[in-house]
Design a protein that fits this description.
alpha/beta, six-stranded mixed sheet, two-stranded antiparallel ribbon, globular, binds iron/sulfur cluster, binds FE2/S2 (inorganic) cluster
Length: about 260
Amino acid sequence: MVQISLPKNSKVVKGKLYKDKTGSKQLKKVNVYRWDPSVGGNPRIDTYEVDMKNCQSKVLDVLNKIKNEIDPSLAYRRSCAHGVCGSCAMNMNGKNGLACTKPHEEIKGDLNIYPLPHLKVVKDLIGDLTTLYKQYESVEPWLKTSKKDDDRENLQSKKEREKLDGLYECIMCACCSTSCPSYWWNGDKYLGPAVLLQAYRWIEDSRDEDKKERLKKVADELKLYRCHTIMNCTNSCPKGLNPAKAIASIKKMLATT
Ligand code: SF4
Ligand code: SF4
Ligand code: FES
């Protein structure tokens, strides 16, 4: 059997316990992944006892409470707090999702919070999305048209517009790509579900004149065909989208054109 040994400093160790100071009878233990590049060493799990009686309903509210009232050094991304910007994507009790839309009441027992899986960690809950954004840029996610009439609307029929439903809603949160085993192992070559769904969004846009080129660009053993239809992506999308279906549609288009 193959023996794999991980570097010593990759082991996640037990961190600090921040005991409740409020005397609340309604406490929840929140275990949070911590790693600070300026300190180095092993990542650790810090545990915070949080007074849930005075906490709003979402996991992001719990993190904000920790940061504001217990430990200001905790780092995580957030912006809109309404499931629109995608920046608060993280792993909560084993499932990727948006901290600002996930009710903490749905998680019974301890709350365990980690960064999105298989990304390099920038700090604490912040994953490094540089590769994903470069891949996003590579599919040229903008309208390509020879129409020069800048002051006129570029029309499409109702039917053509409907084809973009289930695609345009994507907020590029990366929950899908970071839950995809193929992306874990080949993330530098395989484009992954988030970027492929975006590629398909432009392939399907009736106003775009670059469909053939776009298809050609993704028709690659590594960029596209590393998808083995495992469906983790679709199960983890907090917007209820279906990136696996978008990928299958690209494959079908390539097979029939
Ligand atoms: S398809 Fe869903 S999970 Fe993937 S990036 Fe878009 S919104 Fe996030
Ligand atoms: S269906 Fe494809 S993209 Fe989605 S998780 Fe599976 S391998 Fe990844
Ligand atoms: S903070 Fe914008 S999606 Fe959560």
